[in-house]
Amino acid sequence: ILLLNRQLGVSTMLSSEDAAYVMMLLTCLPLSLLASFAPAGPPRQWFCTLVGVGLSCVMCGREILMVLPLLLVTWLILRSVAMKHCPAVVFFVIFGSVTALRVMNVYSGVELGPFTNCLLLLSTLKLISLACDFRDAIYADRLSKQGIDEDSHRFKQFRSPDVDLASILHYNFNFIGIFTGPFYTYRTYKDFIDNRFNLTFQHKKPEILHRLKFFIVILPVFLLFKGYSADFVLTDQFMELWFPFRVLYMFPLFTVFRMRMYVGWILAEVGLILAGVGGYPTSSKPTPGNGPTVELKQVYEGDLDQEVEHVSFKTICNTNIVEVESQMSLQQGMRCWNMCVQWWLVNYIYRNCPIKQIKKPVTFFVSALWHGVRSGYFLSFLCVPIFNYSVKVLEKRVQPRLPPLAYSALAWVLTNQYWNYLNMAFYLLSGTNTIFFWARIFFLYHIIAFAIIIAELVYSKSRGGGPSKNSSHQE
Q: Considering only Cβ atoms within 10 Å of each terminal Cβ, which end of the chain, N or C, has fewer?
């Protein structure tokens, strides 16, 4: 890497976009602390909304007007469409509108601003979750009246949003995490506004320090690799590099991508913690995006003492940095990355898909579409199953034959190289450019993945047959 740095003469200066992003996040920290001191109820709600609208106007300009019709349409659908069909109608209308907007911008040559794009991403998640939670709450309330009072049904009741336009506006424009996430449900937002628990700074301090300590590594690494440009891989000068350098070039690009996301998410989570968003009793076992999973009666019906001793902010924990950096399979890495959105995809897309056989493909497609309409996103997601399966083959065939440390090193290196390879689609955006780059390194990791899979098929056949029916079905 040092040789590559020297040869390319990379710079460690922040771009204007990165500087604006960091300044926006730093500005939100004292405002988040101020929000925690605002009186619960309407004063706190209006403070957070007005700051959010102000930030959106400053960072997005006139493009903020693209978001407002989505809020109005969602409210009209919830008011006028049969409850059974509300989530599906909201999903198709919101996703269809955002997708059409992005397509028009791509083909007009006028790109959406980065902050507008982030606002649209988070608004999409929030509005669709509102529709699903409202429907579930109505159904759970009916079951409760029939004497069916299971814990899962009670939780859905507690998620019930206030379906009026003002509440949707407040939820969508809450300034804490408005551009960065993590995603949190309306119920989590309402718990913060109502100040359900008396959270002191002593509750928050360990969680804040736990997150800030990662900056000791993140900032130097980010600055070291900041100067690498994805556009360089499409130039003639790139082909003048020695082949190992061309392969190695993906590493700093994906590293700086992760560090940039870590910086944004950590500062966003610190802001949420300072404000008190997503803080629940540890005994309620909250999970990312979801919130409490047990002791729901005590949490939401007031039986639990308001002065809680142990508080967890897992609800707004978006990534497990240690797990991501030590991953030994693509599946493991995906589960630890952007966990709140992962929960959203599972809870609102996977579980609501009516056809069992296409649940996974539909979830992957929605995930790619949520990121944007660029063909590179879809190309990257299409390749994930191939690379993931090749890692599973190694785990099955190679792991038993190698010392644990040797296999761990092999799996870690291969998995990270797979991610480097796939991430180029998120930098280059175009499927054509992505394939062009992959061709410049001779589709190296496609060849490795297919070689592993073919070797597994040959080995299985030589042993007198392939995998069992059950294992084949699972794969």
A: C
**What is the DSSP track for 196-223?**
-S---HHHHHHHHHHHHTTHHHHHHHHH
What Cα–Cα distance (Å) separates residue 359 from each residue in 346, 354, 365, 452?
10, 8, 10, 27
Q: What does the alpha-carbon distance between residue 282 and residue 97 come to, in Å, rounded to a whole number? A: 39
Query: How far is it, in rounded angstroms, from Cα 258 to Cα 336?
Result: 13
Residue 247, token pair as written in the block: 């392969």
User: DSSP 3-state assignment of 311?
Assistant: strand
CA-based nearest residue to 253, from 408, 72, 428, 16: 428
SS3 290: coil
User: How many percent of the chain have pLDDT more than 90?
Assistant: 56
Mean pLDDT over 148-172 rounds to 68
DSSP code for 287 = B
Instruction: Give the mean pLDDT of the chain.
Output: 86
- Structure-token pair, residue 399: 């792991």
Contact in structure between 229 and 249 (CB atoms under 8 Å): no
Tokens read off for 421: 């390879």
Which letter, b or e, does each residue of 32-62 get, where b requires 16 or more Cβ atoms within 10 Å of its Cβ? bbebbebeeeeebbebbbebbbebbeebbee
Single-letter residue type at 366: V
Residue 5 is predicted with a pLDDT of: 56
Residues 6+ apart with CB under 8 A from 421: 250, 387, 438, 444, 445
Which DSSP string corresponds to 62-122? Answer: GGGGGTHHHHHHHHHHHHHS-GGGHHHHHHHHHHHHHHHHHHHHHHHT-PPPHHHHHHHHH
pLDDT of residue 133: 86
Ranges 100-114, 326-340, 427-441: which has the least confidence = 100-114
ω before 87 within 30° of 0 (cis)? Answer: no
Give the closest residue to 444 by CA, choosing from 257, 248, 240, 230. 248
Which pTM does this prediction carry?
A: 0.89
pLDDT band at 196 (very low <50, low <70, confident <90, very high): confident
pLDDT of the residue at 12: 52
**Measured on CA atoms in the order 354, 148, 135, 365, is the torsion positive or negative?**
negative
Provide the 10 A C-beta neighbour count for residue 349.
20
- Which pLDDT belongs to residue 305? 47
- Those residues whose C-beta lies under 8 Å from the C-beta of residue 396, and which sit 6 or more positions away, are 456
Structure-token match 């560090």, residue found = 259
| Residue 312, φ and ψ in degrees, nearest 5 | -120, 140
- Rounded CA-CA distance 169/176 in Å is 14
CA distance 305 to 288: 23
pLDDT at 122: 95
Angular region, 338: left φ>0, alpha ψ -120 to 50, beta rest: left
